[in-house]
Specification:
The protein is mostly helical. Helices cover 68% and strands 8% of the residues. It folds into two domains: 119 residues, no CATH class; 145 residues, no CATH class. A three-stranded antiparallel β-sheet has the order 1-2-3, with helices on one face. β2 and β3 form a beta hairpin. The chain starts with a helix and ends in a 6-residue tail after the last helix.
């Protein structure tokens, strides 16, 4: 009778641990998806974490807006589903989640330690002003490269106009993101602002090469990371997530084009083409 009671207590303990491990693996996968990790990395990290915490095997199914995790331990299965809500690209979170998994594999973290460390991970973000300044400088540098490629001289006025237009647009983009606007509305509005500022160079003739400024100030809206992830996912066999990421990247490009067209129409600066 006592042996049976001990067996029942052990079984209950294993089930409780399995539920918690399944939850943590799902949380790990969702955190990676939310912050821009590719699908192969999400599946690998979640599976390795489950194995490190004592599961016999772990299966992960990724969807465009969710994740399903199933753990198997001593013949028992436990499945959980979590919804994925985009939080923006943040490699700090992705790196910290991977480090947590590696620490679990090295037996430096137990089940409670993994849960505590995952709960302490917060997205690291640079100050908005610093981001805007650096984005402005990068777009201005592209404008200078465009001038040199066209055989022109380094025009400081074009460099400055591009810097101001892209920097202000980045501030608008960050502000709208802080207010939780739809990303499509965000891109369209910020592209409208960037093109409107650069268009003043065409209207008033402030710079020698306004065409370069108008084309370079919107380079910050190119969704390079989503496009790379989309191609990577499809190449590695994650067709559903790859297609969804690719479609979202195309929609962001279309929203950006809509904002540019609206600004050019409003300021009647089609002549720069």
């Amino acid at each position: 009778m006592e042996d049976r009671r001990m067996s029942t207590d052990t079984s209950s303990w294993i089930k409780a641990d399995q539920r918690e491990i399944t939850r943590l693996c799902a949380q790990t996968g969702v955190m990676l998806l939310q912050h821009g990790a590719e699908s192969a990395l999400v599946e690998s990290v979640a599976r390795r974490l489950g194995l490190a915490l004592g599961m016999d095997s772990l299966e992960v199914a990724l969807m465009a807006n969710g994740i399903t995790v199933t753990t198997i331990c001593e013949g028992r299965c436990h499945t959980t589903v979590r919804r994925n809500i985009d939080r923006g690209i943040n490699m700090h979170v992705v790196t910290e989640v991977q480090r947590t998994m590696l620490l679990a594999e090295e037996k430096q973290l137990d089940l409670a330690g993994v849960g505590r460390r995952l709960g302490e991970i917060q997205p690291f973000r640079y100050p908005r002003l610093l981001v805007s300044v650096m984005v402005g400088l990068s777009c201005a540098a592209f404008a200078r490269l465009g001038l040199l490629a066209r055989g022109g001289e380094a025009d400081f006025g074009t460099f400055l106009l591009t810097f101001i237009a892209s920097g202000v647009a980045m501030q608008v983009r960050q502000y709208l993101a802080h207010l939780h606007f739809n990303p499509l509305v965000n891109f369209a509005a910020a592209a409208f602002v960037a093109t409107s500022i650069a268009a003043q160079g065409v209207i008033h003739g402030w710079v020698d090469s306004p065409k370069v400024a108008m084309s370079a100030c919107v380079l910050l809206f190119v969704p390079g990371f989503p496009l790379i992830n989309a191609v990577s996912d499809m190449v590695k066999g994650y067709i559903n997530t790859g297609i969804s990421r690719g479609v979202m990247a195309v929609l962001l490009l279309l929203a950006c084009c809509g904002g540019i067209i609206c600004a050019m129409t409003a300021w009647n600066t089609w002549t720069w083409l």
